[in-house]
Amino acid sequence: MRTNQLVPFGISALVFVAALASMGAQEKTVDQGVYTAAQATRGAKVFESQCATCHREVGGVAPVLAGDRFTRAFGDATLQTVFTTIKTTMPRTAPGSLSDTEYTDIVAHLLRLNSYPDGMSELAVPDLPGIKIPGQTGSLEFALVQVVGCLAQSGRNWTLSSATDPARTREPDPAKDDEAANLDALPAGSRTFRLQQVYGAPTGWTDQRIAAKGFLTKTAADERITVSSMRVLTGRCPN
User: Fold this and answer.
1) Does pTM surpass 0.70?
2) How do the domains of the chain map onto residue ranges?
3) Equal fold, 5-25+142-236 vs 30-130
4) Residues contacting 158, CB < 8 A, separation 6+
5) Could you tell me which CATH class the domain 5-25+142-236 is placed in?
6) For 129-158, how does the pLDDT look when each residue is reduced to its tens digit (9 = 90+)?
7) Of the candidates 83, 172, 90, the residue with the CA atom closest to the CA atom of residue 130
8) What are the backbone angles phi and psi of residue 219, rounded to the nearest 5°?
9) Each residue of 58-93: pLDDT tens digit?
10) Which option is the CATH number for 30-130: 1.10.1240, 1.10.287, 1.10.760, 2.60.40?
11) What's the 3-state SS for the chain?
12) Which residues pair with 154 in a beta bridge?
């Protein structure tokens, strides 16, 4: 049995960017990394100074803009709706008093607060109408996800079988030790995913439980993950 270790997969940054680019041809969503980490950090500072007094768990007079409440409010809407809502209602005593850049940074902060991944380009006002927030149905197509399953090879194709349902993730890198331990404890699932951009695996990984991350796509025949990283877990798959 192999112990936990990172996979030196050779999935280059160029491949990762190519996966993003190919999905850009589809309807763009916030799952595709539409803001930068630095922008969200700026937005968090503005939010803390201008908005957090009202939007807090205890004692706030306005709803917390995270989780199910955020999805109920903005699911299936574009980021233009989020931006306009914020600009016309916040800060409570002076709506519209911040700059468009500051409001856009707040949008980026809210996306990070709701576990949507960051990317390489800052969100800008002209981008807002063309970027959609997934609805309450929680479609994960084209999202960066993580699954756990049994690694197998059939011809030139690699698959994960007995896999868990895909879960949204913000990090494309392999799971760290504490996260891997939790993933190892998950029961086997019933899904099967074809793995894209996988050209080989280290000796001993076949028939081992694997945590894979990547972008989820669907075809008429199967579900696929364009892999960004994989990590072997301690559990083995049944023969």
Assistant:
1) no
2) 5-25+142-236, 30-130
3) no
4) 151, 152, 194, 195, 198, 201
5) mainly beta
6) 999 988 755 567 767 789 999 998 888 889
7) 83
8) -120, 180
9) 444 456 677 777 877 788 788 998 998 888 878 878
10) 1.10.760
11) CCCCEECCCCCCHHHHHHHHHHHHCCCCEHHHCCCCHHHHHHHHHHHHHHCCCCCCCCCCCCCCCCCHHHHHHHCCCEHHHHHHHHHHHCCCCCCCCCCHHHHHHHHHHHHHHCCCCCCCCCCCHHHHHHCECCCCCCCCCCCEEEEEEEEEEECCEEEEEEECCCEECCCCCCCCHHHHHHHHCCCCCCEEEEEECCCCCCCCCCCEEEEEEEEEEECCCCEEEEEEEEEEEEEECCC
12) 157
The residue among 214, 222, 176 whose CA lies nearest residue 31 is 214
Instruction: Please give the distance of CA 61 from its chain centroid, rounded to a whole number.
Output: 30
